[in-house]
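Hey, quick one: can you model this chain's 3D structure?
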Amino acid sequence: MADVTVIGQGIFLRGSIKGDGDVEIRGRVEGDVEVAGEVTIGEGALVKADVTARRITVRGAVAGNLTGEDGVRLEEGARVVGDLRGAGIGIAEGALLRGNVQTGTGGEGRTRARQQPAQARTPARVEPRKAPTLVAKTSTPGRKIAPPEERPAPPPPVVPVLKKGSRAVLRKRSR
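Sure thing. Here's the predicted structure for all 175 residues.
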């Protein structure tokens, strides 16, 4: 087992963490965490960062993406807002995840993530689709219905316009 660095419960750390050993976070961290070993985020811990490691175990709260080469595991009580990537993903009952999950070989996803940061990606161009021609199921064969863009809009509903205070007058008259 490699050296374990513990960030204690009362510690607040702002900045990047990079290293070869294992890291156990019990306090609060804001900044990217990139470790060659294992990262454990304990109960009561808050991490506002992207975490990249060989294996990640979460028991606390994370606001950021988690990338584990061997896998990512969310245990009971874990709260994650971000995407999970790894060879294997484990989500225990009682864990909360708000994000996407991508499984497969961890090394490929990690390389792609470094080559193309999320901000630099451009969305693919989507060509507009032509509306299909609808054929009515009536006794007239071959009769076509216009697509929704060509259909006239239905008329607005007819609502009588009453003068201000006329509702009260109508109630008094009906009594």
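One thing worth noting: Residues 4-170 form one domain.
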